Amino acid sequence: MATPRRTQKQIAEKYQGNLGYYRKAHLWRSARFIASFLALSVGLAAIIAYQRRGDERFFNPGKLSAAHAALIEKCASCHDKSSLTDARLRPIKFQKVLSDRFHHGIAFDPIDKNCAACHLKQDKRIYDFHEPNVVKNRSCSVCHQEHRGPGPMKIVASAQCAACHDDRLTMAASALKGRQLDWTNFQRHPHPPHQIVFDLPRPVDGYTQVFPSFWDGHPEFQLKREPARDRDALKFNHERHFAPDIPIVGGKKLACNYCHQPDSEGRYNNQRITFAAQCQACHSLQFDPKNPELTLPHGNTTAVRGFLLSLPAHYAELAARKGITQPNEIKNFVTRQMLQLRARVHSGEDFEHQIFFTKDPYKPQLETEPRVRALFYGCALCHDVQPVAHEAPFIAKPIFVDRWMLRARFDHAKHQVDPNTLRPLACNECHHATRSRLTSDVLMPGIASCVTCHSPKGKVVAECLTCHSYHAPASLTAAETRLGQKAATARRQ
Ligand code: HEC
Ligand code: HEC
Ligand code: HEC
Ligand code: HEC
Ligand code: HEC
Ligand code: HEC
Ligand code: HEC
Ligand code: HEC
Ligand code: HEC
Ligand code: HEC
Questions:
Q1: Higher-pLDDT residue of 16, 436
Q2: Ligand 8: distance of its center to the CA of 323 in Å?
Q3: What is the Cα–Cα distance from 447 to 466, expressed in whole angstroms?
Q4: Farthest CA pair distance, the chain
Q5: Which protein residue has the closest C-alpha to ligand 4 atom 23?
Q6: What confidence tens digit (pLDDT) does each residue in 426-462 have?
Q7: What number is the average pLDDT over the span 402-420?
Q8: What is the 59 CA–ligand 1 centroid distance (Å)?
């Protein structure tokens, strides 16, 4: 330590005779005092004045969002008024609010009740419901943050979903609770009645896997995980239809979009496949190689039967079409055709049986090339045909599924090009259809097909909300949802 040049005593001597200095008035000191006093008292006066006038904006911590801008004069529609601005600003109340905030943060519970109540009235919809086995609800205000500026509210962050979905204890408790609930009432993803949905049963422990993000641990889609089978009765072999011997149609090689045409919303099955539009060009249901002009009617076994029973009439009609006009010649034509048919089949029943129940009613056709063979196949090529005593056989109506993964969204229109290479995105990148031989194959993509793009590495958004929604739809009736609310314990965080 350096030795001081002057002792304490020497220093003190400097102030000798000036000991009252602090008691004397001084211009700067007075100014400071007056400024402080003014600031305090004007502040207090302002608080009191605003209190009296009732303009609560004084306490506003930030502008309300655009959606709630109309509530700017009605703070109390969200806030329990007394906790914010007591009619008289009593010190005890003020202290209590402060200490509350300090120790517990903002009390969301009363605010949430107001959000839910107004929105129930407003939208006729209950927002306090996600899934019936939720054990501890999140607060509305954690996900929808108010007072963050005048624009639209910020989009809900994935972290708010992960607060539950990435929490082992929460999800384990939910799995347990799910085992005790009757789930029949809780269809969080209803669909219009005309829409055919491929719905798998809920797993025993529900959808309670634990994961932080889409690209890290998100479960493989249930369809792939199980894996599911398509039980449609229509036989179809995608791979076969991409073989080299498949004929050209409409001047082009057979491609996905010959059969799967998107509607304006980018969905495919709203424009459902029909026999007439997608199969008939090659499978035209001819039955007589000598008279390829004649084809069986499609879509109704009774009509086919009727057609076969009145074959002579159809041959007569054909004769007329061929320009044969003399009744005698027409009769001869019909007789000749019936004879050549009978040379091949033993009887009418035999013929009918072949057409309905065998894939290839015309054995000789097997030597011809596939494109011609395809024209002549019987119903059983594509259908499971069941005999019915004394009646035409039964063929179940094929089912084309409209929605395969109801718990998420998908839009083909946004998946036309690869954003990284700007090249068109092939259907097969996701569907692998050209390798499928059976109708029962489910051609839906697995999660790996999505993560290539929807991840930080693929540079496409991968927030939970890109693909999912949170709230149950309005159509879940109040009674069902109240049940759910009761199931979800009231305590929030
Ligand atoms: C649409 C509902 C809504 C309206 C209207 C609203 N607030 Fe808020 N306010 C909230 C929510 C939610 C919070 C707590 C969470 C946050 O800060 O994001 C909050 C927090 C606050 C806070 C700080 C936390 C506290 O409780 O101590 C103050 C102060 C406040 N609001 C004042 C106002 C005033 C003044 C008005 C009227 C101009 C108003 N608010 C209108 C929803 C609302
Ligand atoms: C007094 C009634 C009322 C209260 C209370 C209220 N809201 Fe709203 N809220 C509305 C109205 C009205 C709209 C606008 C609806 C529209 O534009 O179609 C809205 C819109 C919204 C939206 C949609 C925002 C958007 O960008 O589309 C959300 C989210 C929302 N409110 C959440 C909340 C939350 C959370 C609370 C409680 C902190 C709350 N609301 C309290 C009436 C209310
Ligand atoms: C309060 C806890 C909680 C929060 C927060 C939460 N979830 Fe869930 N979620 C659950 C539980 C519990 C299940 C399981 C349901 C079951 O077992 O069938 C679930 C299931 C799901 C499912 C699959 C089941 C279905 O019917 O769709 C999706 C998708 C989902 N949540 C999306 C979200 C999204 C998106 C968010 C964020 C906006 C979110 N969750 C936030 C608790 C939560
Ligand atoms: C000749 C018509 C035809 C062509 C061409 C065709 N499909 Fe299909 N596709 C069908 C029929 C019929 C079904 C319904 C039966 C089934 O599920 O196999 C179907 C079903 C599908 C399904 C949903 C059903 C499931 O089981 O998952 C997808 C996805 C699909 N096709 C993709 C493709 C792709 C991709 C291509 C092009 C590589 C393609 N299809 C070419 C006729 C066709
Ligand atoms: C990025 C991946 C991806 C690409 C590329 C893609 N699909 Fe899909 N496709 C899907 C998903 C996911 C579904 C399931 C949607 C749902 O939940 O129903 C689907 C459903 C379908 C379905 C059955 C349901 C419906 O919407 O009709 C058909 C048929 C289909 N796709 C055909 C095609 C064809 C044809 C192409 C090429 C033009 C194609 N897809 C390109 C992912 C893709
Ligand atoms: C461009 C012509 C073409 C179109 C369109 C077409 N097919 Fe085919 N299909 C063929 C040919 C050629 C064969 C092979 C015939 C053979 O080898 O005997 C075939 C074979 C089949 C087979 C037998 C597959 C196997 O495993 O041997 C079935 C089933 C079938 N088609 C169903 C359909 C259905 C259903 C449609 C309409 C959705 C359809 N096809 C549309 C040309 C077509
Ligand atoms: C090349 C494949 C193919 C052959 C061969 C075929 N069908 Fe179909 N059939 C279809 C397809 C695809 C559908 C579904 C779309 C439609 O109804 O047009 C269908 C639908 C049907 C339906 C249900 C119609 C409804 O709306 O309820 C009946 C019944 C039917 N076929 C009968 C027959 C009969 C009878 C034959 C033989 C004469 C036959 N099909 C031959 C492909 C075929
Ligand atoms: C080749 C890259 C690529 C692949 C693979 C891909 N996506 Fe996308 N996806 C995109 C792009 C690009 C967008 C548009 C993002 C945007 O609008 O900001 C998008 C948007 C979406 C959206 C939002 C659609 C909307 O309505 O806004 C959903 C949902 C989605 N994808 C689901 C999927 C699913 C499920 C898969 C896997 C089966 C998948 N995607 C595979 C590139 C891809
Ligand atoms: C790119 C699209 C996409 C993103 C991003 C995404 N998911 Fe999914 N998620 C899906 C699809 C598709 C399914 C399958 C839906 C079905 O089977 O009906 C699914 C299924 C689920 C399931 C059910 C899981 C099961 O066990 O089958 C839950 C829970 C879920 N997602 C939650 C989330 C959460 C939380 C996030 C955000 C961290 C998220 N998802 C992000 C597309 C996405
Ligand atoms: C875990 C986060 C979360 C919680 C908690 C939450 N919401 Fe939402 N909310 C969302 C998401 C995400 C959306 C976007 C649409 C969707 O996914 O359903 C949304 C949309 C809304 C909308 C806009 C209307 C719509 O359907 O798009 C309103 C209003 C709303 N929420 C009100 C509430 C109210 C009131 C509460 C409390 C009872 C609440 N939310 C709790 C995540 C949440």
A1: 436
A2: 59
A3: 14
A4: 152
A5: 443
A6: 999 999 999 999 999 999 999 999 999 999 999 999 9
A7: 92
A8: 9
